Amino acid sequence: MIEKTLAIIKPDAVKNNVIGEILSMITKAGFKVLGMRYTKINKEQAGAFYEVHKEMPFYADLVEYMSSGAIVPVALEKENAIGDFRKLIGSTDPAQADEGTVRKLYGESKSYNAIHGSDSAENGLIEIGFFFSKSEIVLSN
Ligand code: CMP
């Protein structure tokens, strides 16, 4: 099934100057870019984006970190996008991630793990809607 997922290149990866390397891995893996932005979100926006984690002990740090610097949200489409993207980026904890995955290569820790990917097709659409208006999504190029 063709699915959509939202990737976010996180502040640590932007600061480490690896936006291009990560985008290259994503497009080489066959993902089609539907939309892309370079932006910075405030604490309120980061809190809303990660609201599902609000009871977790790491929530406050996550919100602080995701609003600490520029990020690159990218709307992506592919057959089996959710599963394939999660395979491409690897486990949440870079130390546990498979060799060659984005998090293994560019993540530093569970908190500073370089990239986000949606965890379901339903959330992919919701998360894309968080960062992109309909007119910013290009379905056919
Ligand atoms: P992400 O894919 O963006 O989704 C939720 C984020 O919460 C996750 O990546 C991590 O950056 C962060 N996270 C998840 N579990 C932990 C944890 N145990 N400690 C710190 N941060 C975490």
Structure keywords:
globular; 141 residues; binds adenosine-3',5'-cyclic-monophosphate; 4 strands; four-stranded antiparallel β-sheet; alpha+beta; Alpha-Beta Plaits
Explain how this protein is built.
The protein is an alpha+beta fold and 141 residues long. It has one domain: 2-Layer Sandwich (Alpha-Beta Plaits), CATH 3.30.70. Helices cover 39% and strands 17% of the residues. The chain has 7 helices and 4 strands, in the order E-H-H-E-H-H-E-H-H-E-H. Strands 2-3-1-4 form a 4-stranded antiparallel sheet. Helix 3 crosses helix 4. The longest helix is centred in the last third of the chain and has 11 residues, at 121-131. The model has no long low-confidence stretch (mean pLDDT 98). The structure holds adenosine-3',5'-cyclic-monophosphate. Adenosine-3',5'-cyclic-monophosphate (CMP) binds at residues 53, 58, 62, 92, 110-111, 113, 116.
Sum this structure up briefly.
With 141 residues, the protein is an alpha+beta fold. The chain is built from seven helices and four strands. The chain has helices spanning 11-15, 19-28, 43-49, 59-66, 81-89, 102-106, 121-131; strands spanning 2-9, 32-36, 72-79, 115-117.
